[in-house]
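step=predict obj=DUF1793-domain-containing protein n=702
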Amino acid sequence: MRLLSVAASVLSVASLAAGVAWEATPFNPSAIPLAVRSPFLSSCNVLRLGQGSNGNGVPLNGGWPSFWTGQTMAWTGLAYIDGKAYTWMGVPSVSGSNFSQATQKSVNITSTQSIFVLSAGGVDITATFLSPVEPTDLVKQSFPFSYLSVSAASNDGGSHSVSVYVDISGEWLSGSNIWTATWQTTQGAINTHQVQLKSQAEFEEISDVSQYGSIYWSTQKTSGTTIQTGQDIVVRGQFLNHGTLANTFNNNFREISNSWPVFAHAHNLGTVSSKSKPASALFTIGHVRDPAIEYIVQGNTLQDRSLYFWTEYPTVSAGITAFYADFEAATQRANAFDAKVEADANKISPDYAGIVALSIRQVFGAIEITTSKNAFGGYNKNDILVFMKEISSDGNVNTADVMMPAWPLFLYTNPTLGKYMLDVNFRYQATGLYPNKWSAHDIGANYPKATGHNDGLDEAQPVEECGNMLYMALSYAQKTGDNSDLKTYESLLDQWTQYLIEDSLIPANQISTDDFAGSLANQTNLAIKGIVGIGAMAEIHKLLGNTKQSANYTNIVKSYVPQFLNFATSKTGPHLTLAYNQDDTWGLTYNLFGDKLMKLNIFNESLYEMQTAWYASHFNQYGVPLDTRHTYTKSDWQLWTASWVTNTTVRDQFITAVKNFVSDGKFGEPFSDWYDTISGQQSGFQARPVVGGHLALLVLDE
Ligand SMILES: *[C@@H]1O[C@H](CO)[C@@H](O)[C@H](O)[C@H]1NC(C)=O
Ligand SMILES: *[C@@H]1O[C@H](CO)[C@@H](O)[C@H](O)[C@H]1NC(C)=O
Ligand SMILES: *[C@@H]1O[C@H](CO)[C@@H](O)[C@H](O)[C@H]1NC(C)=O
Ligand SMILES: *[C@@H]1O[C@H](CO)[C@@H](O)[C@H](O)[C@H]1NC(C)=O
Ligand SMILES: *[C@@H]1O[C@H](CO)[C@@H](O)[C@H](O)[C@H]1NC(C)=O
Ligand SMILES: *[C@@H]1O[C@H](CO)[C@@H](O)[C@H](O)[C@H]1NC(C)=O
């Protein structure tokens, strides 16, 4: 089953683009995650299939690794095999040196790893990029580091002497290369290049790259290790010509683009033969800033928050030592996690498993787990908050309607992480500093500044966000049995419900999470979110023992449903409309996912059947449009919809449409959730955490 699907995906890509000659498991996506651990190490993706080459795939050594925005973050991989030099990552140009490109043979993508095999000079070089996903270990998940393991094995039966080299450039430090970098190299059991901007701007970004903090680029020191810093062509040329580095350090601190300083490590792996085990070298890369987040708290003051790993590691270097030593165990945990996700998702389909594998690092790469300091400078270990960046669309902090689409990933991997994320929004709104009666859209306009919206002028999505907070609060409690937030924030939750009671049967002219589609009155899908939200509060009151309020809200829902069906059902076709009284319109009523998730049974089965049959006859090549206003759609909403359709053929059509979109080579960015159903082109957005919604099918049937 699995192998067949591999062959099919290789065939379909090969027929599309003769340039793609490697085997891809599960498929060749638009971009491949390399080191993706935080919004500022959410980063290096290659294989931008689109990249001006009309679907021609880019191997690991066919382009530069880049930040999710597309900005180059040079990461160079070289090998020196029997006296000849090769590139296996990046596209360095070094005149006067003789080298050739290794040939990419395969790429495998799992939930935590991207594994490339390239061949050169009778040797297979395997580059394994492991970005750990550790949902239940807050220290490990919050340590913003990623592994690169490079191994070499003979592939022709012969013996070969092999050295490998990897460098990074200062481009990892800023969204603009005009800034001056400084660096220092520490040599010990582990050699580390630490690189940062000379003038640090706390909590600032340029083009989404942090303007403060340091990159730490490390490897173990062994007898075969050499090291060097200096101008790109000098350092790379040294290795290309000699297979070893000069152990020299150029400390002429300068602009990132001024004679491009690079920071290199090399390992002599000795001789590999058909009889020897593969020889390998391990590297780690991370980006640390402290404080990580600025958060508005009671009394309108700003609190600095630090990444949670500080509660365990006194220094970054102690963290690197522990992270480095943990590689074997981390790999075993990663393999177990990958296998579980794959087994669960494969019960739906291999295409679904591929989509899920490609989505998981993207969500974890958008969050940070933090803690605060106490009056004595120590950490409040029990004060845990998770912050999420609304990557790509606007950089807001903890946007309720971005947390909501991503929510299935949290329910599946660890709902408590979701609670720590929700608590950011609850705590701020419980201070009373936020003036609106509906839920805030987000807790800060620019990550990592979670400074609130005391003026109430955040992007208003009143029904949307009230509904989202209720959906998330109840489904967390149902999944875990922990009602503490329901109790603590009961009055806020009830306040938002009052808003829904007023405004969700006949929703006023407003935007939904799909703000790009424009504002509209009487949106059917918003009414569903609101009515299901009221139903959620009825359940919350029940859990809290407030039987009278629970019964009252249940009655309100019961009285709303037939009125809603009357307003929202088209008179001309068997479907719900996009907006009341517009019989020819329709859209994805993805918010029905909440009714199923929370098992509220507000809407009856015949409604689900009607919608399913309608979508079955409205597929374009890449899926069902979001609504009748445009031909574009959203991948997350398609898979939310797929989670509740009553026909598995239709469910699988949604899944395959999304898989085709992300693997057809029509665009070359990290997983986009917004694209055209006819052309398969990206409409906007990329690398957003909303792809956590692709896990919707994993959380309904448990
Ligand atoms: C470069 O490689 C070519 C072909 O292998 C060889 O003829 C030439 O001598 C090499 N030049 C240098 C400077 O190593
Ligand atoms: C890649 O995946 C294929 C198919 O599952 C498997 O046979 C192969 O061993 C994998 N390669 C690596 C390097 O993990
Ligand atoms: C919204 O729908 C209700 C019920 O059909 C209708 O009375 C009202 O005029 C509609 N509002 C707008 C702005 O279309
Ligand atoms: C039910 O809730 C609505 C909305 O909050 C309120 O106006 C009404 O008085 C409540 N009814 C009862 C019987 O509590
Ligand atoms: C169930 O849904 C159908 C179709 O929307 C509707 O005709 C019927 O009244 C609904 N029944 C109930 C009990 O809501
Ligand atoms: C399920 O959907 C497919 C595709 O539209 C259709 O051919 C099939 O008849 C449907 N099955 C049922 C039981 O409705």
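step=describe
The pocket of 2-acetamido-2-deoxy-beta-D-glucopyranose (ligand 4) is lined by residues 498, 501, 552 (CB under 6 Å).
step=end
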